[in-house]
Predict the 3D structure of the following.
Amino acid sequence: MEIKSITLVSFGIFEKSLLKTIETDVSMAFRLPVKLAEGRTELGLFFNGERRQYDANQLLQIVNEHYTAEQEKTCGLFTVDLFIPILTYIFGQAYLNGRAAIASNYRLNNERYALPVSAELLAQRFSKEVIHELGHAFGLVHCHNASCVMRSSTYVEDIDQKSSQFCKNCHSLLEK
Amino acid sequence: MISKNSILIVDDEVSVRDSLCNWFLEDGFEVACAEDASKALNMLDTANYDIILADIKMPGMDGLEMLRRIKKIKPEAIVIVITAFATVDTAVQALKDGAFDYVTKPFDPDDLSHLIRNALKQINLTEENERLRTQMVDLVQVEDIIGQSEAIRSLLFEVEQVSQSNASVIITGESGTGKELIARAIHANSPRRFFPLVSVHCGALTESLLESELFGHEKGAFTGAVYNRKGRFEMADNGTIFLDEIATISSKMQVELLRVLESKSFVRVGGNKTITSDFRVICATNRDLKKMVQEGSFREDLYYRLNVVNINVPPLRERKEDIPLLADFFVQKYCTSMSRNLVKIDQSAIKRLMDYDFPGNVRELENIIERALVVGNGKEIKMKDLPLSREVPADKTESLDDLEKQHIRKILDKYSWNISRAAKALQVDRVTLYNKIKKFDLSQG
């Protein structure tokens, strides 16, 4: 099925400039029009008191069920700390070759690591993670190319190492 | 196309299964899930998975029991045990039962990546090991035993037949025929090939040294025995022991050897503990053991114990058609080891090699080729490079004609076939020399 657009649904308060940067970066990466939307879901329902984090599996399910449409891919943007039962945290996740993805900027901010605040760095990191998760939704798996945006990242330093572009191989897979 | 690695996730919690499944799919793995141990075991009956991730606490059969069962069916399986309730006891038990690793959930995304990377490294190493073992076996089989003659083909057929059994073998044959190679080929093709082939050159050791070499010794057993030392029989456990020049062992050693072969157990020199070892015996000799038995110098009971199968390696003169092949093989071998370009062997040199009887067999041919490469011009091995180039086999020089022919050829070679100078040296005229050349069908080559 031909994908005609991408929708970014924000769940939480984001700077307008941040959203604009992500919109532009995602549009350039996938060469598709990108729409911005606001999510109306009550996130408290997905809060796990024991772990003091938000259940990423359930959030992904909500985005998939309520915010997706035919011929488009959707990424939910969050400001909360995401987890899946087996891992201590995640930056985001997606249904491989599915319609939905989610990403959070909670652990991307320099302040969390006692480093100087940098809105620019935060925007870059968040863009990369959103593109990465949408890449999965487009059917791409992790890539071993060090500069490819599809390279797996477990720390923010890993995100900083890679670019926001797809490598040649991932790009050609995306084109198919 | 690179095949994907596969992972089986066994966990009763659907959210855990889904999370892991999603994570590994994004990482490019093939993923399958099972909600309990019995379903996982059924899946393992029909499919092969590179890595198995299993929860410990599951209804019905728990993860540790499943781990034990998997290891029984497939000892090389990589099973990673996951639990939310970590205790030292379960961790120790899991590792004792053969788990590759033990992790407590939830874990860091980076830990999961490391865990899987290590598991994949282990899989690659195991596969590489298996591949190298296969290559090693092929090397012994294919590269070292050269020949296409009927004699060598039937010899290889015998080797193949004998390899699969556990019977003792005596390899007979003249010196230099390659008896040790045959022993290695038997071992390399046998089910014991993944265990050692231990060689003992019985002729090179005195009686007391041989005893200590074969049975090992305890510290202080004799002067110089400063450490406990394993004997060759002990080292050959599950493998093969090759006793070269078996005919040279003393009567005392013959008795000792017979006892060990019968009981497969022995005591180290200076020790009192009985050691058992499961080995196969292959012996070699260039002597006629049967004759030695008749003469009383070799024990009959030992002879029959060793001589379950007899393989005779034919001398090179009985398989002359293999000489060009062997010569080429040695040229290639030495050119490679001397880092030189491959040289050719001149046809006349090949002919001369074929004429020769090789009392030293393949070993002598090997030495001749090595020498020719050292003294030759580096482009081609010619007749003059062979130390036997002017020799005619002794048994053919019985008649006066043969002697005359040999002498004329020697003189012609000496004067590079200058007829006038050769005739002068032979003190005959040129016409006579031409007639002799015609008579004896001599040619320059």
Observations:
- The mean pLDDT of chain A is 93.
- The beta strands of chain A are 5-11, 34-38, 47-48, 53-55, 72-78, 82-84, 87-90, 92-94, 100-104.
- The first helix of chain A runs from residue 16 to 30.
- Chain A touches chain B at residues 51, 57, 83-90, 93-96, 136, 141-142, 152, 154-155 (CB under 8 Å).
